[in-house]
Protein: NADP-dependent oxidoreductase domain-containing protein
Organism: Penicillium cosmopolitanum
Amino acid sequence: MSLSRILPPIILGGAGFSHQVHRNPNSAQALQVLKRAFQLGLRAIDTSAYYHPSEILLGEALSHPDITSHYTRDQYLLMTKVGRITADQFDYSPAWIRQSVLRSSERLRTQYLDVVFCHDVEFVPEEEVVEAVGVLFRMVEEGHIKYVGISSYRIDILGRIAQRVQEEYSRSLDIVQNWAQLTLQNNTLAEDGLEAFKEAGVSCVCSSSPLAIGLLRSNGVPVGDLGDFHPAPRGLRLAAKEAADYVATQGDDLAALALRYSIRRAQSLSTPDFRVTTIMGITTVSELEENLATAGLVLQVSDRLRWLWNADSGSWVGVDSYRTKKDKELSLAVKNILGEWYGYCFPSPGDGWDLSTKKPKTVSA
């Protein structure tokens, strides 16, 4: 079955259970969030081996009796990533790709993975990515994986690799993932990328980081155990803070507005055969409930998220026209406040990265 037919419009992001964005991620936190997410109908999870210890914590939670006594494996989707090991370490060799997939399955305590992405492909030579995708395709045939994708901040590289994969293997990638470019601050994914993906036969696009890794909120970027890793320069951070303050004066919250914008935009770009979904980073039950309540305002959820798509009519449920009008007005105001920072793209991998060695450049004394 095409992934576009089963992938839900909202996905729970597993980076919230990592040292990058959370202080002291733990198994109790993961179990509480998953239990509540499953109760509310949110049954798709995206993580990565890089988001350590996310896979381990999720595996412990998914194997807990509170989950296994109520849900079977076929009732939820698991997506993870391979290739990126640490902030400055990558391994796209065929042997490691295979080992990483098997390790992720063991950590997540599952017999198969629904989706595996090659992680942050802009940091390695494209030919290595294409070769790694071939390994994943073989693991699909072996039953370890169901669908294969690639992830990157760089939309141009995603499109180019998707085309190369189609030419090399006479089959298409199932899905691509892009982050922080279908947001109130950056709409590049909608403006430049989707058509190239469609031409390469891709049927699903995951838009992650609707808040641009916490930039678009009132309390600043998140700081986990590994410190402040956010790529936003000071000027953009100040502009985002000004936007958050303005939205607050209008009786709203920038994070909620940004999430509504991203979800609404993703659904407007979706069709039955081409799905654009939103990955929400979640760290606590209260955050989960707030985000799903916000999503419900856009998607008009009456019960559970899995019922948002009406398969009989082949259409999404309608949106609140009054809220849409108010959100458009606020979104325009935010865009004006951001000014020159609207549409700004983070450098990835940046001038300090050596693509041939897949390592930071050595600085001469």
